[in-house]
Amino acid sequence: MITFPFHAIHAASMALLPPKMVSAPAEAMLIAIGLQESRFEHRRQIGGPARGFWQFEQGGGVRGVMEHPATAPIILPILDRLQYEPVVPVVYSALEHNDILACIFARLLLWTVPGPLPGPSDAHGAWEYYVEGWRPGKPHRQTWDDFYARAWQEVGS
């Protein structure tokens, strides 16, 4: 049985992220992507460099969120508040052990994808959104629809 890190999602969204980033579609995408990337079982990618349940790579998602014009002004004060030096290797290392920080990075990476978040009946649109943001090396489309449906069940919509 997979245990969803709702504590991380709620802590990140309620206390640290701007209210405009809190929504049921955002929570559903965070759950679906966590399931897709790590099954919420692996904070360190098996056989790879990614870290955290949402599987961030140092030169990809970590650097991207820290440097993107839409997310840098949000993540830098959060890193300061959490007492992390705003340096890619430091943050990359922290993502493996700090689920709240990893969730914040995942939400901010979603924020960089243009367009509204998909709704509960749009698994295809959600897949496209995920692929645009995460750019997975070996995407497994066959698992996505079930994970996306489960995520919306968990969110309650």
Can you give a write-up of this model?
With 157 residues, the protein is mainly alpha-helical. It has one domain (6-155). 60% of the residues lie in helices and 0% in strands. The chain contains 8 helices and no strands. The protein has helices at residues 6-16, 24-38, 58-67, 72-81, 88-95, 99-111, 123-134, 141-155. The longest helix is centred in the N-terminal third of the chain and has 15 residues, at 24-38. It is globular. The two termini are 21 Å apart. The model has no long low-confidence stretch (mean pLDDT 92).
Number of strands: 0
Low-confidence runs of at least 5 consecutive residues: none
Beta-sheet strand percentage?
A: under 5%
Q: Outline, from the CA principal axes? A: globular
Which features would summarize this protein structure in a list?
about 160 residues; globular; single chain; mainly alpha; 8 helices
